[in-house]
Design a protein that fits this description.
The protein has 334 residues and is α/β, with parallel strands linked by helices. It contains 15 helices and 10 strands.
């Protein structure tokens, strides 16, 4: 595989594509987090909430840019991809916008909401047994089989420069908004799984705020990125486990790793219990009904495990809000 590193210029180009389809997700100031953390009046906390996108997560940005950049290769062929759920609905929405057939492989344990959302945009879904996938490799084998049988173009949910650039548009929105406000960034908290979200955002944040501390957050039982940072190279874990279904990749992508290794200052592994507490905190204080993957960066901020020194602001990414109501209520009952 030839590794192409996503640049800030790629993200600016992707922004032109994405603006044709969706509006920016809001960047909202959290007065309550500022109070909770005991920050001085000069510092602010901002939440970038991708729950406001048409698919309820950030994944739509990367999917739209990937689809737009691959139209010639796709032509009349379908698109195939595997996803824990959010990229599924993102690429399904992109397929709807560009009038392309989309075939998705999803784990059998994905929230019902993610299945329904993906189907609502016209995608066709096949489920696989996630409990044994680490032994059988069923997810990848089924995706490759569908791509071969259907002559489909296969899309990666994260390990692709066009996906990284599309996701990076959200980071570009953040720095553009803060620049207009005359604000700076001291700490930037963002979830890490395959690395598509964090890689794109890291490029944008580091370009405008090179002194910012960029913090990658993942579950403690799915901490392949933390281990990779410790080892100085990509580390694969055999069976990631977490309530954060969107953060259970086996390893970070090959296109993502050079960016993450260059720009991320710190990796934080958060136990699910703290993520549940953050879900409850966001619901009680902001009325936000987030999925676990969406709340984990807030959990890291609230954990007290990250040094918050500095004079500039703090930005926290809420990556998505797609969670079944019954499961959400069970998780926040802590």
């Amino acid at each position: 595989m030839t590794i192409r590193i996503t640049t800030i210029e790629d993200i600016h180009e992707a922004q032109k594509v994405i603006r044709k389809h969706i509006s920016p997700a809001p960047l909202v100031r959290s007065y309550r987090l500022e109070k909770e953390l005991g920050l001085p009046e000069s510092r602010r906390v901002w939440l970038k909430d991708y729950g406001w996108t048409p698919v309820g997560s950030f994944k739509l940005m990367g999917a739209l840019n990937w689809m737009a950049q691959n139209l010639d290769a796709i032509a009349d062929r379908p698109v195939a991809a595997h996803s824990s759920g959010n990229f599924a609905s993102g690429i399904a929405f992109a397929g709807m916008r560009f009038q392309k057939r989309v075939l998705i492989v999803m784990p059998d344990t994905a929230p019902t909401l993610k299945f329904e959302l993906t189907r609502s945009f016209g995608a066709e879904i096949q489920a696989y047994n996630i409990a044994t996938d680490h032994e059988t490799g069923e997810r990848d084998r089924l995706t490759h089989k569908i791509a071969k049988v259907e002559d489909a173009v296969q899309a990666s949910p994260y390990d692709d420069p066009n996906v990284i650039a599309g996701n990076g548009v959200g980071g570009l929105e953040i720095v553009q908004d803060l620049h207009r406000e005359g604000r700076g960034v001291a700490q930037f908290f963002c979830p890490v799984s395959g690395g598509g979200l964090m890689a794109g955002h890291a490029v944008a944040v580091a370009d405008r705020f090179p002194q910012a501390t960029i913090i990658g957050v993942e579950p403690s039982e799915a901490d392949d990125f933390y281990q990779s940072m410790q080892a100085g190279e990509r580390v694969r874990i055999e069976k990631p486990t977490s309530i954060c279904d969107g953060l259970c990749s086996y390893d970070v992508g090959e296109h993502n790793w050079p960016i993450l290794h260059k720009h991320i200052s710190q990796a934080v592994a958060i136990p699910d219990s703290q993520t549940q507490q953050a879900m409850k905190w966001l619901y009680d204080n902001h009325g936000l009904r987030t999925e676990p993957s969406g709340a984990i960066a807030t959990a890291a901020l609230l954990s007290g495990d990250v040094d918050l020194d500095g004079d500039a602001d703090i930005v926290v990414v809420i990556s998505g809000r797609n969670v079944d109501e019954s499961q959400f209520r069970e998780w926040i009952d802590v």
